[in-house]
Every structure is written in structure tokens, then in C-alpha cells.
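Objective 1b: paired records.
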Amino acid sequence: MSHRRTPPRGRAASSNPVNRFERIEVEPEEPSAQKIETLYLRDTSRTILATNESPDVPFDVSLNPYRGCEHGCIYCFARPTHEYLGFSAGLDFESRIMVKEDAPELLARELDRPGWRPRFIGLSGVTDPYQPIERKLRLTRGCLEVLAAYRNPVGIVTKNTLVRRDADLLRELAVVDAAAVYLSITTLRSEITRVMEPRTSRPSDRLAAIRELSAVGVPCGVLVAPVIPGLTDHEIPEILAAATDAGARFASFIPLRLPGAVAPLFEDWLEERFPDRKKRVLNRVRDMRGGRLNDARFGSRMRGEGPYAEQIRALFDTSRRRLGLEHPGPKLSSAAFRRPSGHQLDLFPDEPTTEAD
């Protein structure tokens, strides 16, 4: 059950739907559009690398310095993961951010283990590694410093142009074919971005990040994700063309999927922001998902099925080939992997330095 109301300023979700693991739901007395402050909470996990066996995901190891995501994308498939932490997939996901303060040290210990087999690490597998608080905490940069020291291959997906700050480390890894960056772009329309992805970087700035990173030798691509049928799907050729002009070398896409609590949150958002398109969008999602709003089956969840899914795929493939974009991205190498001499914790200075974004 969700309680639809106008989203608070700077947020995409309008409510905190009940956590599926909780028996008691507390309903606010009155809807509120006031500003909701973000809280940063210490995550005391003693491991930093997560593994998966999904055939739909192109890597089996991921690194997440943060859990929850202040970007607040209303469609985010990761929202239900916050329920495992005792939070809601709604506003809690956007405003209760778990921070792994010792992420770089934990990563160094993992890579230093004799049993570590050098391989591709996805940064990150769940929420964006370039949270707004990353400007201050620099945990993602610390992890990249470790990866560069060990020359372990890494791929980044982000909607935040803060990734440009780390061009030096990404370039260092790219020299040994160990880094690639995807800038994720859902739409080029800033008016949609403001209400759908309220705390992400502007689409034009993401294109500028592709241009800047590509110019210094970092392989960059564009991830058109999610493709929202009836709302953003027609933009696929335009997004790919703009990314190509900015220097992107490769491209991928993922159609919208609405697992768990994401579906009612997204439905409420459509009702609030695009009521005239709500029925069309949801019907087309059902067309791709076997009559449902989500299909969790391997092989289908990241692609969709049916005529409409094929139409999107054909539009993407035709546009990509015409522009000369690779699919998927480059195959990264672990051939240059090494373990630095000395103690791994020597990688970290006593006091963080200040660096421009």
C-alpha cells in the first residue's frame, strides 16, 4: 500500500510505502511537501565485494561504497534493496544513505588476499558510486586509488558528472586496458530529468563528462537506461547521436523494469507528473513483461519480450550501427594486475587532500 501525495522538494518519491518485511505500517496524519534532509548512516559491513550468478549481469563481482541513493530516480530497480536494511523503498531510499567509511581499506585487503583471482569489478552493482556526498567523503575515489595501485579492471556506471574528478586514476587504468565508464542517460529533456531523476547531473553535463573523459583516453560509452516506453523510448536515436558526438565509443540499453515496491511508486509518480501518459506507459510496460509490470525471469528481465520490446531493440540496434557504436563495451584485461610492495594500508594518507571536482 502506498499513500500518494506531492513529492517533497528535491525528491521523486512521494511516500514511504510499507517495508514488505514489516508487519506494522505507520501512516502520516497529513501529506507533507516540506524538504526532507538526507541522513548518512555508518555501514559496518566487514566485506566490500558482492558476487552474483545472474546470467543477465555482465560481471560477477561488484563494489558498492554506498547503499541507498540520493539521486532519487523514481524508477530505480535497487529501491527494494533498502527494505533489507529496515527502511522503505520510497523516500527512505533517497534520504537514508548507508556509508561504508572503510570501503577502500576493505577493498585493499580483498585484493591482497592470495586467493583473489584478478577480474572485472563493477562499480557499483546497485546504487550510484558518485553520490552527492562523494564530493566530501571521497570513498569511490579511494576505491579507485586501490584499483589503480593493483591494476585491477573496473567498469563504472553513473549519472553524476563527478566522475570527471577521477579522470587521472581512470586514465592510469585505461592505459593497461583496465577501465571503462558508462554515463547513464534516460532522457535529454531537462524538464523530465528534474522530476524523474531529481538529484542527478543534467543530461547536457553527462554528455560533457563523456567528452572530457574520452579526450584523455578513458573509454566511455552511454547506457540508455531505463528506456521508458511511451515517455522516453522515442529519444533513443537522439541520445545515441549526442553521445557519439561527445566521444562515446559504445552503447547499451535496458528497458524499464519495476520490481517490488518500485511499481506502485512509479505508478503514483506518473499520476502526479504525467497523468495523461500514465495508461499508455503502464500498458506498454505490461506488453513487454508478459502482462505484468515486472518479469523477474533470467533472460527476460533485462531485455523484455514481445513485439514492443523487439521494436525498442530494433530502434536501438539500427541507431547504434548507423553511428558506429560498439555493443557491448570493451573487454577489459586483468593481465597487468599486481600487488603493490609494502603494506596495503600504506596506500592511504593520514589526512585526505582536497582536490577540485
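Objective 1b, second protein:
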Amino acid sequence: MERQTSTFTSWEKLRDLDLVAFLTSIVYGPCKTSGTNYWYLSSLRTEKTASFKVNTRLNRWWDFGIGKGGSIIDFCLEYYKTELSEIVRRLSTQVFAQSPPFFPQETFSDQPALRITEVCDLSCGYLKSYLRNRGITVQLAASVVKQVHYNLNGRSYYGLGFQNDLW
């Protein structure tokens, strides 16, 4: 009986892994954020308008295009198209999984949640590959976007960014 309890605890830890960090590690960052909602182009199907939402407060996703959602485990079952035992193995061995699991917190600070740490010319191979996979030449993209490194809630990320003419 005690073995089942520890397995259940491990299962909960896997289920509560930070979904945004996981998506960033396998796909890319969000197209936009709005409060606790992060919007992505779905990696489960082809689309041009972001309709895949992750609610960071709940740590759950919903893909409006297919009408499905759930935890990180549910996402992995859809994304990898494999058995649950393989999903548990993959989640247990992901590099990002070594960070603390996601635990929603209602804390407020006078410090901004997002902080840009560097803006530079496009140099990351993953970002260049992302552009090429979407039919955008690196030369064209480099004329309108920059590579932006930023911290969000204590985690470091990078992505493509357009200059904001209002700032």
C-alpha cells in the first residue's frame, strides 16, 4: 500500500510540472500572453492563428481547434502519440523536469514579472529553423525582428521580437 502512495505522489509531481516550461523546451514560446493565459500556435495541428491556450494559474491547456485539453500528461499523450508508460518515462527524464514543479502562488510584487535582458541580431539556430519551417527566410525576418532574451517569473527564455515603436 505504501508503494502505491509514493507512485501516486510521483504521478502528481509529473502532472504538476510547469507546462509553459515544457512547451518552451519542446516547441517554442507563446505567441502572446494575457494575464495568466499563454497563447500558442498549436503543436498538435497546423494553424495560422494561436488557439492553443495554457492557463498558468491552473497549469492546464486547452486547444480550441480540437476541443481537447488537460494536464501536461494529457498534452504529451496527444503530442507524442504513444503509451502512458512512455510519457511517464519521457517526463521523468526531461532536463526541464529537474527544476521544481509548478505550484500556483498568489504573490504580488512591485517588480515586473517580465524583464528583457538582451536584444540582439538573430543568431539562434532554433529560431532560424522555426522561421524556415514556416516559410519565412532568415534574411526577411532579420530585417523586422530581433532575438530577445528575457526573464519571466525567474526563468530565462528567448524568442523573436518586434520593436515596440511606443517605447
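The chain has six helices and eight strands. The helical segments are 2-15, 19-26, 72-80, 84-93, 125-133, 138-144.
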